[in-house]
Amino acid sequence: MGAKKNFVLDTNVILHDYKCIENFQENDIYLPIVVLEELDKFKKGSDQINYNAREFVRELDALTSNDLFLKGASLGPGKGTLHVVTGDKYQEKIALSFPEKTADHRILSCTLSIAEKNPKIKTILVTKDVNLRMKARSLGIQVEDYITDKVINVDIFERAQDTYENIDPDLIDKIYSSADGVDSDLLEIKSKLDPNECFILKSVRNSVLARYNPFTDKIKKVDKGTNYGIQPRNAEQSFAFEILNDPNIKLVGLTGKAGTGKTLLALASALKQANTYKQILLARPIVALANKDIGFLPGDEKQKVAPYMQPLFDNLNVIKAQFAPGSPDTRKIDDLQKNNQLVIEALAFIRGRSLSETFCIIDEAQNLTPHEIKTIITRAGEGTKMVFTGDIQQIDSPYLDAQSNGLAYMVDKMKGQELFAHVNLIKGERSQLSELASDLL
Which residues lie below 8 Å from residue 331, measured CB to CB, with a gap of 6+? Predict the structure, then answer.
């Protein structure tokens, strides 16, 4: 246990994780009164940050006593105390650099004041705002990102599935000839494999796309077949269909840059299995341009979010285009939509629902926080499969990055679980121009 510290929390930390005050061990936590003022602005609404604001205020109310504003309220055994700081003067040192008394500048002033009153205790501002962190450093204020749920190593999101060479060619022949696969003990690399991991096996004369099936403890061949009109164009897409089509795998992560086919593959697999599930649900979070509220857009709530949902309908139209108009496969899609068995909507509209016997696809999951991902997964009822797709390098939320977003967090925490599988798609398949833009721009 190190020396005790004082942590000053910015509003965005609470909006990111309303349970954040539980994660500072025996250290003391300070909330500038301006943080409560900002939280009050976020209480109304149906987005996750609105929910987080309300929940935090409720938890704070449960602690409410005069101590909270005086000597601090205890957070429990092994924890520090929580203080709400009021009445601090705007520090002259802050005013010289930042004369405008914005919320961020008042938080900086409060942090400086706490540090001056407690010279023997390290005082640290915690914020997910990169710009505020730079301002703090310019003033000599110690500052950190909120790293409790950060993923340290994101290398798996930058490389394709593994290829193992110098494999016995006769073993590869056996994998091809056996519908159920071969005993995993026959493969020397077994100890390196995670449950449901997909990989390529190569010998001097043959090769095979394969997967380790933890339910049978076998190495099985990965099929390259068509799924509802969509033919996999590379090994990674074949791997994606493999894990999407296995009913034993309840949670799937598909990552990769734009144009790799993540959402299209998930939707094609869902349509192939439409008779297995009561509903196919395709949703995505709404992150408006420049993080502005969508309230300024014309129309009712459904009309406001329609432009953000269009990419999902585009994927559906790509699948429908594989069949002749009026064909049984096209009519099936139309019937599913008409009967509310295929639903495309904003993620906010499904909050609070329990999802049973549903093939649920969450697109653009890199724009979700770890807490949001957890909330969605815990809604899964019996017979539900959840698929999260996204690109951790293409994040629209201002307070998330490649290491702190919910998609990366889920893949990192779930790796090694039998119910989970992850495939990272590398090769773009939209067009040469799309591939070039993803790589260079």
Answer: none
**Strands of the 5-9 sheet, one edge to the other:** 73-74, 81-85, 28-32, 5-9, 122-126, 142-144
Assign 3-state DSSP to the chain and report helix, strand, coil percentages, each to 5: 40, 20, 40
Q: Confidence class of residue 296 from pLDDT cuts 50, 70 and 90?
A: very low
The rounded distance, in Å, linking the Cα atoms of 398 and 291 is: 7
Q: Which residue segments constitute the domains of the chain, with CATH numbers given?
A: 5-144 (3.40.50.1010), 233-440 (3.40.50.300)
pTM of the model: 0.83
Residues 6+ apart with CB under 8 A from 116: none
CA distance 46 to 48: 7
Q: Where residue 306 falls among pLDDT bands split at 50, 70, 90?
A: confident
Which amino acid does the sequence have at 24? F
- Quick one: which of 262, 246, 247 has its CA closest to 211? 246
